[in-house]
Amino acid sequence: MKSSELQSIKQRYNIVGNCEALNHALDVALQVAPTDLSVLIVGESGVGKEIIPRVIHDNSPRRREKYFAINCGSIPEGTIDSELFGHVKGSFTGAINDSPGYFGVANKGTLFLDEVGELPLATQARLLRVLETGEYIPVGATEVRKTDVRIVAATNVNIRQAISEGRFREDLYYRLNSIPIQIPPLRDRGEDIVLLFRLFAMQMAEKYRMDKVVLTEEAKMMLMRYKWPGNVRQLKNITEQISILSTERQITPEILARFIPQDQETTQLTTIHNEGNHSFENEREILYKILFELRSNVNDMRREMSTLKKQIEDVQAVPSTTVPASPTIPTIPTIPTIPTTTLEDAVAEEYVEPVKEPENLNLDAWSRQALEKALDRNGGNRKKAAQELGISDRTLYRRLKQYGLDK
User: Fold this and answer.
1) What does the DSSP 8-state code read for residue 48?
2) Strands (E), 142-297
3) How far apart are the C-alpha atoms of 240 and 233, rounded to whole Å?
4) Which distant-in-sequence residues (6+ apart) come within 8 Å of 157 by Cβ?
5) Considering just the CA atoms, what is the radius of gyration of the chain in Å?
6) Is 0.70 topped by the overall pTM?
7) Per-residue pLDDT tens for 86-128?
8) Does residue 110 contact residue 59 with C-beta atoms inside 8 Å?
């Protein structure tokens, strides 16, 4: 693409920066725009992925048709199928009228599916069918409908990892990824950071009729050294804070340090899988491990209590007159003379064997699942799986045999 054409696109969409990776992304977007190929835009949260679908639509043969941008992560899982594919009257509570859904309304146009990695698996299967055949069935309907929609998707999650964890369909990934476009993170854009700061500062000055904040050379270098985990969105927020809160209009490194977080080695924020809810994947793994260890400890305690009970019963069965007085045999420390009430109390405090596993916790199912996951993550290596779960090899083998996994 010619430099003049590129600058024209940047001015039209208010894109600031001369980063080579950003220029390449815009070039690919303009090349793929005249086609109907699906596009997958990949980049961290806050890098500005939403600009690319607009560029593609406005430069495509569909530019006079409708364009919809949908945040898949913000729609509840229970209603997302209805939102995308429509529904018929009476198909669920609250469905008082027919709805065509986005795929019906956007026919001949473009749909931008932001955060596509957060789609439920059932919805992914429906989306795959639309991409392959252009057909879909509204919720509660029995007849197939056709649509001609151009799909541009975006994600900030690691799709490859999501596929390996079973959270995203591999066939859908390849269908969406006909043309991949990578948006660079802000920390890799060099002097674009300073240009963006200048733009945001000028916008604040014009909006609130105040003097524009200006960076010193040292402050510019400090700005470019920071890792920007929130990317352009974070830079804009910090610029706005400085514009409002700083009494000085010339920003030095000392002033800048008050607004920039000190963890400069941070490269990304905590990942939240927002499917309308948090995936709780890490928390679930921790809980599995705790429950697995708890079950192991309970079983060990049962065995010890059973052994103790047997020893006490054996001692009670031996008449006190038959205990040899030989010095070579340790005298049993007055266990036969222990009051009956004390022995009964000891037995009563035992973890009673017939008590069933708590059905509401379903420890068997959870511990089995934790065991299977540990084996999968370690490629079937039992020793590594045992180390990960914090149990001995012997305990692991016993669990494998118990759950029928030792084949």
Assistant:
1) -
2) 145-146, 150-155, 179-182, 214-215, 250-251
3) 11
4) 117, 118, 271, 273
5) 32
6) no
7) 999 988 888 889 999 999 999 999 999 999 999 999 999 999 9
8) no
